[in-house]
Write a structure and sequence with these properties.
83 residues; 2 domains; 2 helices
Length: 83
């Protein structure tokens, strides 16, 4: 019974450490089935009229834009910040 409690404590401590250090977790799971896949790459920019554009292809040359990398488990787009 002692060994079971000890094993449980070690597992919880390891899970907590990986939770607090997500970069280490990503390194450990890279190339395994636990790795998250990128769902989409989106591009966000303002057109000549000042309207916000969000597409799956980059804007025309010379237009500044923000690249959004979405994970596979995200089902909605992030909130658009007010400028």
């Amino acid at each position: 019974m002692k060994w079971l409690v000890s094993l449980l404590v070690v597992m919880v401590a390891g899970a907590g450490y990986l939770y607090l250090h997500p970069d280490l977790y990503r390194t450990l799971v890279r190339g395994t089935p636990l790795e998250r896949e990128k769902a989409a790459t989106l591009y966000q920019w303002r057109d000549a009229r000042g309207l916000l554009q969000v597409t799956d292809h980059p804007p025309p040359d010379g237009v500044s834009y923000r690249r959004l990398e979405l994970e596979g488990d995200i089902t909605v787009l992030p909130r658009v910040p007010r400028e």
